[in-house]
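User: Assemble these into one structure.

Assistant: Restating your components, then the assembled model:
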Amino acid sequence: AIRMTQSPSSFSASTGDRVTITCRASQGISSYLAWYQQKPGKAPKLLIYAASTLQSGVPSRFSGSGSGTDFTLTISCLQSEDFATYYCQQYYSYPPWTFGQGTKVEIK
Amino acid sequence: QVQLVESGGGVVQPGGSLRLSCAASGFTFSSYGMHWVRQAPGKGLEWVAFIRYDGSNKYYADSVKGRFTISRDNSKNTLYLQMNSLRAEDTAVYYCAKDYDTAYFQHWGQGTLVTVSS
Protein backbone atom coordinates (compact mmCIF):
# COMPACT_ATOMS: atom_id res chain seq x y z
CA ALA A 1 0.00 0.00 0.00
CA ILE A 2 1.13 3.55 -0.69
CA ARG A 3 1.89 5.44 2.50
CA MET A 4 1.02 9.15 2.72
CA THR A 5 2.88 11.34 5.20
CA GLN A 6 1.83 14.89 6.04
CA SER A 7 3.86 17.58 7.72
CA PRO A 8 3.54 19.19 10.09
CA SER A 9 1.01 17.23 12.16
CA SER A 10 -0.24 20.48 13.64
CA PHE A 11 0.65 24.14 13.85
CA SER A 12 -0.72 27.47 14.97
CA ALA A 13 -1.39 30.37 12.64
CA SER A 14 -3.15 33.70 12.63
CA THR A 15 -5.99 34.98 10.47
CA GLY A 16 -4.48 36.47 7.32
CA ASP A 17 -1.42 34.21 7.31
CA ARG A 18 -0.30 32.26 4.27
CA VAL A 19 0.00 28.62 5.28
CA THR A 20 1.37 25.55 3.53
CA ILE A 21 0.84 21.90 4.32
CA THR A 22 3.01 19.20 2.78
CA CYS A 23 2.07 15.67 1.78
CA ARG A 24 4.60 13.07 0.67
CA ALA A 25 3.81 9.72 -0.97
CA SER A 26 5.94 6.63 -0.40
CA GLN A 27 6.10 6.16 -4.18
CA GLY A 28 5.24 8.24 -7.21
CA ILE A 29 1.51 8.87 -7.65
CA SER A 30 1.59 11.26 -10.61
CA SER A 31 -1.13 13.84 -9.82
CA TYR A 32 -3.62 11.39 -8.34
CA LEU A 33 -4.03 13.28 -5.09
CA ALA A 34 -6.95 14.88 -3.28
CA TRP A 35 -7.17 17.20 -0.28
CA TYR A 36 -9.98 17.31 2.29
CA GLN A 37 -10.94 19.68 5.10
CA GLN A 38 -12.56 18.40 8.27
CA LYS A 39 -13.98 20.51 11.08
CA PRO A 40 -14.64 19.06 14.54
CA GLY A 41 -17.70 16.83 14.61
CA LYS A 42 -18.25 17.17 10.86
CA ALA A 43 -17.66 15.03 7.82
CA PRO A 44 -14.65 15.69 5.60
CA LYS A 45 -15.17 17.98 2.64
CA LEU A 46 -13.40 17.65 -0.71
CA LEU A 47 -11.27 20.70 -1.50
CA ILE A 48 -8.93 19.73 -4.32
CA TYR A 49 -8.50 16.77 -6.68
CA ALA A 50 -5.95 15.93 -9.34
CA ALA A 51 -3.42 17.67 -7.06
CA SER A 52 -4.42 21.18 -8.14
CA THR A 53 -8.04 21.30 -9.36
CA LEU A 54 -10.37 23.16 -7.01
CA GLN A 55 -13.67 21.45 -6.26
CA SER A 56 -16.69 23.55 -7.21
CA GLY A 57 -17.58 26.07 -4.51
CA VAL A 58 -14.20 26.00 -2.76
CA PRO A 59 -12.73 29.49 -2.20
CA SER A 60 -9.85 30.48 -4.46
CA ARG A 61 -7.57 31.13 -1.48
CA PHE A 62 -7.05 27.36 -1.45
CA SER A 63 -4.57 25.96 -3.96
CA GLY A 64 -2.71 22.71 -4.49
CA SER A 65 0.46 21.81 -6.30
CA GLY A 66 2.90 19.00 -6.85
CA SER A 67 3.27 15.73 -8.68
CA GLY A 68 5.14 12.49 -8.23
CA THR A 69 5.81 12.16 -4.51
CA ASP A 70 5.64 15.71 -3.10
CA PHE A 71 2.54 17.86 -2.82
CA THR A 72 1.45 21.03 -1.06
CA LEU A 73 -1.83 22.60 0.00
CA THR A 74 -1.63 26.37 0.39
CA ILE A 75 -4.14 28.74 1.96
CA SER A 76 -3.19 32.19 0.75
CA CYS A 77 -4.95 34.25 3.42
CA LEU A 78 -6.19 32.21 6.37
CA GLN A 79 -9.76 32.91 7.41
CA SER A 80 -11.43 32.01 10.71
CA GLU A 81 -13.47 29.29 9.02
CA ASP A 82 -10.28 27.61 7.75
CA PHE A 83 -9.17 26.40 11.18
CA ALA A 84 -9.63 22.67 10.73
CA THR A 85 -7.79 19.43 10.04
CA TYR A 86 -6.62 18.75 6.49
CA TYR A 87 -6.01 15.34 4.91
CA CYS A 88 -4.37 14.30 1.68
CA GLN A 89 -5.43 11.10 -0.10
CA GLN A 90 -3.92 9.15 -3.00
CA TYR A 91 -5.88 7.36 -5.69
CA TYR A 92 -3.01 6.27 -7.93
CA SER A 93 -2.98 2.70 -6.65
CA TYR A 94 -5.91 1.02 -4.98
CA PRO A 95 -7.13 -0.77 -3.05
CA PRO A 96 -6.47 0.53 -0.53
CA TRP A 97 -7.18 4.21 -1.00
CA THR A 98 -4.92 5.82 1.60
CA PHE A 99 -4.91 9.07 3.55
CA GLY A 100 -2.25 11.09 5.26
CA GLN A 101 -2.45 11.25 9.06
CA GLY A 102 -3.86 14.79 8.97
CA THR A 103 -2.62 18.30 9.71
CA LYS A 104 -4.47 20.35 12.31
CA VAL A 105 -4.42 24.11 11.79
CA GLU A 106 -5.05 25.90 15.09
CA ILE A 107 -5.55 29.52 16.03
CA LYS A 108 -2.44 31.27 17.37
CA GLN B 1 -28.11 18.40 -3.99
CA VAL B 2 -26.32 15.22 -2.99
CA GLN B 3 -27.43 13.88 0.35
CA LEU B 4 -26.06 10.82 2.15
CA VAL B 5 -27.60 9.80 5.46
CA GLU B 6 -26.05 6.99 7.49
CA SER B 7 -27.88 5.02 10.16
CA GLY B 8 -27.54 1.84 12.17
CA GLY B 9 -24.70 2.74 14.49
CA GLY B 10 -24.75 1.96 18.18
CA VAL B 11 -23.09 0.05 20.99
CA VAL B 12 -22.30 -3.61 20.41
CA GLN B 13 -20.30 -6.18 22.36
CA PRO B 14 -17.04 -7.63 21.01
CA GLY B 15 -17.83 -10.45 18.62
CA GLY B 16 -21.21 -8.96 17.78
CA SER B 17 -22.70 -7.77 14.52
CA LEU B 18 -24.18 -4.56 13.19
CA ARG B 19 -25.52 -3.41 9.82
CA LEU B 20 -25.05 0.16 8.71
CA SER B 21 -27.18 1.81 6.04
CA CYS B 22 -26.60 4.88 3.89
CA ALA B 23 -29.61 6.43 2.17
CA ALA B 24 -28.66 8.40 -0.92
CA SER B 25 -30.54 11.14 -2.74
CA GLY B 26 -29.89 14.01 -5.13
CA PHE B 27 -27.99 11.97 -7.70
CA THR B 28 -28.37 8.82 -9.80
CA PHE B 29 -27.24 6.35 -7.16
CA SER B 30 -27.06 3.41 -9.56
CA SER B 31 -24.40 5.20 -11.64
CA TYR B 32 -21.79 5.71 -8.93
CA GLY B 33 -19.44 3.60 -6.89
CA MET B 34 -19.68 4.06 -3.13
CA HIS B 35 -17.26 3.80 -0.23
CA TRP B 36 -17.26 3.37 3.51
CA VAL B 37 -14.59 5.31 5.40
CA ARG B 38 -14.13 5.27 9.16
CA GLN B 39 -12.51 7.46 11.78
CA ALA B 40 -11.61 6.17 15.22
CA PRO B 41 -12.03 8.68 18.07
CA GLY B 42 -9.34 11.35 17.79
CA LYS B 43 -7.70 9.58 14.85
CA GLY B 44 -7.41 10.02 11.10
CA LEU B 45 -9.42 8.68 8.19
CA GLU B 46 -9.27 5.02 7.15
CA TRP B 47 -10.83 3.66 3.99
CA VAL B 48 -12.90 0.53 4.73
CA ALA B 49 -14.69 -0.74 1.61
CA PHE B 50 -15.76 0.10 -1.95
CA ILE B 51 -18.50 -1.21 -4.21
CA ARG B 52 -18.85 -0.55 -7.91
CA TYR B 53 -21.98 1.16 -9.23
CA ASP B 54 -23.53 -2.18 -10.22
CA GLY B 55 -22.20 -4.19 -7.31
CA SER B 56 -19.97 -6.26 -9.58
CA ASN B 57 -16.71 -5.42 -7.80
CA LYS B 58 -16.05 -5.00 -4.10
CA TYR B 59 -12.83 -4.14 -2.30
CA TYR B 60 -11.98 -4.22 1.40
CA ALA B 61 -9.26 -2.96 3.70
CA ASP B 62 -7.15 -5.79 5.10
CA SER B 63 -8.29 -4.80 8.60
CA VAL B 64 -11.92 -5.76 7.83
CA LYS B 65 -11.57 -8.40 5.11
CA GLY B 66 -13.55 -11.52 5.92
CA ARG B 67 -15.58 -9.73 8.63
CA PHE B 68 -17.31 -6.87 6.81
CA THR B 69 -19.48 -7.03 3.69
CA ILE B 70 -20.43 -4.06 1.55
CA SER B 71 -23.59 -4.24 -0.55
CA ARG B 72 -26.11 -1.99 -2.22
CA ASP B 73 -29.74 -1.94 -3.32
CA ASN B 74 -30.03 0.36 -6.30
CA SER B 75 -33.82 0.07 -6.27
CA LYS B 76 -33.80 1.62 -2.79
CA ASN B 77 -30.87 4.01 -3.33
CA THR B 78 -29.22 2.50 -0.28
CA LEU B 79 -25.72 1.35 0.58
CA TYR B 80 -25.01 -1.15 3.36
CA LEU B 81 -22.15 -2.35 5.50
CA GLN B 82 -22.65 -5.63 7.35
CA MET B 83 -20.13 -5.82 10.17
CA ASN B 84 -19.52 -9.17 11.90
CA SER B 85 -17.03 -10.35 14.52
CA LEU B 86 -16.65 -6.79 15.74
CA ARG B 87 -13.59 -5.82 17.74
CA ALA B 88 -12.79 -2.91 20.02
CA GLU B 89 -10.57 -1.46 17.30
CA ASP B 90 -13.59 -1.17 14.99
CA THR B 91 -14.94 1.60 17.23
CA ALA B 92 -15.25 4.63 14.95
CA VAL B 93 -17.50 7.01 13.14
CA TYR B 94 -18.41 5.36 9.84
CA TYR B 95 -18.98 7.58 6.83
CA CYS B 96 -20.42 6.62 3.49
CA ALA B 97 -18.98 8.55 0.58
CA LYS B 98 -19.88 8.95 -3.07
CA ASP B 99 -17.06 7.97 -5.36
CA TYR B 100 -15.83 9.94 -8.33
CA ASP B 101 -14.30 7.83 -11.08
CA THR B 102 -12.94 5.22 -8.63
CA ALA B 103 -10.68 7.95 -7.36
CA TYR B 104 -11.63 10.36 -4.64
CA PHE B 105 -14.51 10.86 -2.23
CA GLN B 106 -16.68 13.55 -3.73
CA HIS B 107 -19.46 13.74 -1.13
CA TRP B 108 -19.74 12.44 2.39
CA GLY B 109 -22.53 11.61 4.79
CA GLN B 110 -22.61 12.94 8.35
CA GLY B 111 -21.41 9.64 9.81
CA THR B 112 -22.75 7.12 12.32
CA LEU B 113 -20.90 6.09 15.48
CA VAL B 114 -20.15 2.44 16.16
CA THR B 115 -18.88 1.58 19.63
CA VAL B 116 -17.61 -1.91 20.34
CA SER B 117 -17.44 -2.42 24.08
CA SER B 118 -18.44 -4.90 26.74
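The interface with chain A takes residues 35, 44-47, 50, 59-62, 95, 100, 102-111 of chain B (CB under 8 Å).
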